[in-house]
Amino acid sequence: MNNEVKIKAKNVNFYYGNKQVLENIDLEFYQNRVSALIGPSGCGKSTFIRLFNRMNDLISNTRMEGKIYLDNIDINGKNVDVVKIRRLVGMVFQKPNPFPKTIYENVSYGLEVNGIKDKKSIEEKVIESLDRAALWREVKDRLHDSALGLSGGQQQRLCIARCLAVEPEVILFDEPCASLDPISTRSIEELILELKKYYTIVIVTHNMQQAARISDFTAFLYLGELIEFGPTEKLFTVPKEKTTEEYLTGKFG
Amino acid sequence: MKNKITQNLGFFLLFFSIITTLFFLGAIIYFISVNGLKVINWEFLTQVPRKGMTEGGIAPAIVGTFYLTFGAILFSLPLGLACAIYLCEYSPKSYVVNIIRMSINNLAGVPSVVFGLFGLTVFVKFFGFGVSILSGSLTLGIMVLPQIISASQEALLAVPQSYREASLALGATHWQTTKKMVVPAALPGILTGVILSIGRVAGETAPILFTAATYYTRGYPDSVFSEVMALPYHIYALMTEGTHPEKQTEIAYGCSLVLLILVLLVSTLAIVLRQRQRGEL
Amino acid sequence: MKFTIRAGVVKENIYKWVFAVSAFASLLFLVGITITLFIEGLPIFKEVGFFDLLFGKLWYPTYDPADFGIFPLIMGTVWVTVGALVVCVILGVGSALYINELAGKKQRAILKPMIEILAAIPSIVYGFFGMVIVAPFIQNLLGLPTGLCAFTGSLILGIMALPTVCSIAEDALSFVPKSFREASLALGANRWQTMVRVVIPAAGSGISTAIILGMSRAVGETMTVLMVTGGAAVIPHSFFDPVRPMTSTIAAEMGEAVMGGAHYHALFAIGLILFLITFIFNVIAETISRKYRLKLGLSG
Ligand SMILES: Nc1ncnc2c1ncn2[C@@H]1O[C@H](COP(=O)(O)OP(=O)(O)OP(=O)(O)O)[C@@H](O)[C@H]1O
Ligand SMILES: [Mg+2]
Question: From CA B167, how far away is CA A114, in angstroms rounded?
Fold first, then answer.
């Protein structure tokens, strides 16, 4: 199995004001693979993945050094449209954040803003996305109810469906199961394994079992630095670095 | 022991303050209602005034107030909302925010009669709109602009940042996010603010004294360049002009009650709406 | 290429500029008001002289030769405002303290909307109420020649400005951290002592802001004073004299002033003075509240 590079971070430094939170990170994520980012709270995992869809642009007084490549194109380049980047790189957030609209509208929103006007194809796409997100059976009778009435796990799957609808190539998950119960977590994990057939997936997680269960590659971040990166199996069984081993065995974090 | 007495005395004073305040509120509503109800009937609400304001109804004044209020909101809502959107969604530089915020605060503190002077000079004279619905609406609109801006700002700020992030992450542009996501989510709050402003505009007198209002019109206004009767000005005119003080006072009671009901309905509606919204969040 | 800039960007920039320009509307109007008042008000300063206009004791704008001394009007405003201040500070701050410190949750849920309703009542209704109910009552009660005087004006105006004072003060009080109160109570102070020595000083600048804004409201209020204060343009000697504050002078006389005449300009000059006074009040209030926010670590 050969691994094609989809995203590449090169020499990335990141600052909130004067505070540096990412130091010299070099990392590659591969097509159709699930890559997990683990590390103790505050080590910069969210900050890091938010660089791939340029979400950090929204926060004022921040600065990035280095380069991020998507398909070998520098996403911070001069002629690059951030909106297009975000269409190709979808994101699912830590807390389920469906819009205060109906279930249907939540999914159709992304299609509409992407300029799709045809009612029929929007509807097809909505159904397809909900189906892929393993939510269709549960909501097909209440498509026009408010999304806020769904359970936490359903809301998160709705957010995934919403994200799938715009056909991204990469999906970033920032602790998607952090606020969910074990059963919902299970279903989201299964979903991610299914989605990897079509997408490149990066997932931030606190939960090492989760990383072990679903990821092909794992990166361990500590205090803003990349300590170790490699195939999940290797990293979990024979870590190269002492810090990684300590973290995995629960000595800190 | 002495401490206990001071405390009781102090607490009694505070109690006295709130009771006095409520007493005045009650007194105003009571006296206006009791006397106003005597003259209010269907004819009073639907007829034009007759016999030098001593008989007939106040329909033109109700209609005039409606036009003026509608015009003022029509002018100030788009402008105020746009300003709030700029401040909240486009995160301008902090010195720009400061200049704008200072302007808004100071505009909010300008005495209402001074708005009247401004409207007189600029709309009535300079632009030649004359004493008219148009001049009055614009003047009132400028007066409530700060209130509309603050209400819209508050509503926009209450929209969770996560909605904006989710929308942008789906590849919506900034403008699409604002138009399709943020403003609709803020709409209930904005509406509440607008409703409160309606109450304020409908009751203002000083800004329309020289820009829109007149004591008496034979019928209803036929264009935006017509002078109008307005409820608040009508009360003033009834009390200070004319030759039948007693008859006029009765009518003024009726007018006041109509205005009071209008304004209180509107603000109660706003208060209830707002409490609902706060409960939801 | 799939990443390059869309055509829509130009359109979005246009929207941004439309919003930016609208955002400056308030500044535009504020500057417009200032310019208007200066242009229309300054001629009378030239004609009468700065000092004579401000401190002239006679206001006979329609006589021939006319007198344009606005000192009596200024004094009218001062008396009425000071009176109103007494009423609205005592009742407003008192009510705010009651609502925040003594009232239970249920009471508060009723009292706060009540105060808002008081704020929503139009000034003309206050004026009318003052004229037909309060003034005759006070006249009979105190055996005055007329109930339309500075005292009645102050009372009504105070009630009107009360909601402003009450709600801002109430906000300030609610910002005082619970730990302050608990610390004081733990030291054995009773609730009243805690309130007077800890809570009120902690909310001090917020309460001052409230008072200044209430004062600004009272100075600028027009219809109420126009209807209730009696309208005599002479320097008052007691609270029971009729007075003619600045706002009501403008409101009452603009209709009869000849456009572009000396009287007309004089009324604009009064408007200018009013504008400057309230402007200064607002700047002071703003400065205090900004410092206060910084102190509490709240954002701008
Ligand atoms: N908007 C911000 N402004 C300033 N500092 C920030 C901001 N967001 C995050 N930080 C800081 O940057 C560091 C990295 O934060 P980040 O959210 O990326 O960590 P994380 O690894 O995702 O943590 P967690 O597991 O708790 O989500 C932290 O020290 C955090 O305090
Ligand atoms: Mg995080």
Answer: 11
Report the CATH number that the domain containing residue C77 is assigned in CATH: 1.10.3720.10
pLDDT in tens, C34-63: 999 999 999 998 888 888 888 888 888 887
Residue-wise pLDDT tens digits, A43-81: 999 999 999 999 998 888 899 999 999 998 999 988 888
Which of the four pLDDT bands, split at 50, 70 and 90, describes residue C175? confident
Nearest to C5 among A73, A75, A81 (CB): A81
Angle between helix C150-175 and C135-142 (nearest 10) = 110
Mutate to test the interface with B, among A46, A57, A82, A97 (most CBs of B within 10 A): A97
pTM of the model: 0.89
Which amino acid, residue C204?
G
Three-class DSSP category at B281:
coil
A2 touches ligand 1 (CB under 6 Å): no
Chain A residues within 8 Å of chain B (Cβ atoms): 53, 55, 58, 60, 83-84, 86-87, 90-91, 93, 95, 97-100, 109-110, 112-114, 159, 162-163, 166
User: What gap in Å lies between CA B202 and CA B67, rounded to an integer?
Assistant: 10
| Measured distance CA(B120)–CA(A41) in Å, rounded | 63
Q: For residue B219, give the CATH number of its domain.
A: 1.10.3720.10
pLDDT at site B280: 57
**Which chain B residue is nearest to residue A165, measuring alpha carbons?**
B170
What residues form DSSP beta bridges with A173? Answer: A92, A203
Count structural domains, chain C. Answer: 2
Range of weakest confidence among A205-219, B232-246, C28-42 = B232-246
Helix (H, G, I), strand (E, B) or coil at B212: coil
For residues C32 and C14, state if they share a domain.
Answer: yes
C228 vs C150: CA distance, rounded Å: 8
Residues C28 and C159 reside in one and the same domain:
no
Burial C139-172 (b: 16+ CB within 10 A, else e): beeeebeebbbbbbbbbbbbbbbbbbbbbbbbbb
Number of domain units in chain A: 1
Beta bridge partners of C243: C230
